[in-house]
Amino acid sequence: MPLDANPTIAVIGCGTLGTALATGILAPKDTSDSPKFTIKHLIATAGTASSKRAASKTPSPNTNADVVLLAVKPIKREDVFSIPGFKEAIRGKIVISIMAGITTAELARLIYGNDDDDDNDEHNNSNERVNLQAIRAMPNMAARIRSAVTLYTSTPTTTPSTLSFTHWLFTQVGTAQSIPEKSFDICAVLVGCAGSLLLLVIDGLLDAAVAEGVRRPEVQDLVVNSAIGMMRLVPEAGDHPGLLREKIASPGGCSIRALLELERLGVRSAFTGAILKAAERSREMSGSR
Length: 289
Hints:
By secondary structure, the protein is of the alpha/beta class. It is built from 12 helices and 7 strands. Helix 8 crosses helix 9. The longest helix is centred in the C-terminal third of the chain and has 28 residues, at 184-211. Belongs to the pyrroline-5-carboxylate reductase family.
């Protein structure tokens, strides 16, 4: 069934990203190149304690919701899904999850249980399970300023209207791109972790300024704005950022000296290893309960 143009959405877990998404869809941008949606009602829940007792205070999604957005921390998913009535309330709805590392298969397990569970009920073999519309997505923290990059993938039974709504939802806080789930772990950590790694770089550059006698607040904006401008040049430089780097590192100059020192210290391979470790952890998370 096509998703109504005026759906009701329940946001489960209004932390930083959940709040950013809720704020974005309540004040939608003009996206004339895609179908328009208007949120009829938005239901928001929040639970900040880590214990199951605190999680049990989080209400189940309203039974009138068309879409349920799961924005809880992945380590709390078992607590949330064990709340009495939660699974029953979420079944048959469109489920969009931004829980890091949680696959669409794991979402199906959370909602309907394992096929071989002794305590499975009649829902497990119902059309609801077979036709589950579940989307796995990963926006980054820039959603707070509507500059996020969001990747999303879905179960094969997800309808075109649901995918259109998903794309519309995430474009309210930046840009959105659909990718195959087999590529999701590595691509998601690039989107989700790259920012924090680049912040580490910025912090190191500012440390150098402090070591040279310059106060951090005096140069922070200079460094950040310089980095933003340089990143915007990358698409124009060609298929590889190395092409742009070569243009900047002139013979005998300061940049080539700095780059050679980083290569001597193994910084490039360290960043590669860090992302590979993050992708490995992302794959592990669906199996961690």
